[in-house]
Amino acid sequence: MTHPDYQGTLKTHDHDLRLLRLGTPVLLTRSVQPLALPTTCAEGGTQCHISGWGTTNRPWNPFPDRLQCLNISIVSSSTCQAVFPGRITDNMVCAGGITGEDACQGDSGGPLVCGGVLQGLVSWGSVGPCGQKGIPGVYTYICKYVDWIREVMKNN
Q: Considering the domain 47-146, what is its CATH architecture?
């Protein structure tokens, strides 16, 4: 189920999330567990972790054979607004901005995990090469959607 306020990437990336209903339940084991939903929003400076199967630098690079993982920090809202003026909403959070450290094409929807809690989903970033110094990636801020997520899960 796509968030009802999502308008597509041609207008804005706001409300960029979708929940999937699985055909069969997931078997939870010691190795397979859901991430916790946030009770508060992570702030600038919070250390997080991203992972994904996207390209490691530019759109024309091949996709990796192994899951890529990276430690990354949340960037302050004011810094994010300065990098992307007029494009950042309260439903978005930025992370990264260190040379060579970023999510990239193919990572969209991947997790931004801070202290074992799902704080974001890879949404969008620079139109240039990934991992440019001073240009963070932009993530859907999950703390803004916990009520909607719980409501959809309850009804499905």
A: Beta Barrel (2.40)
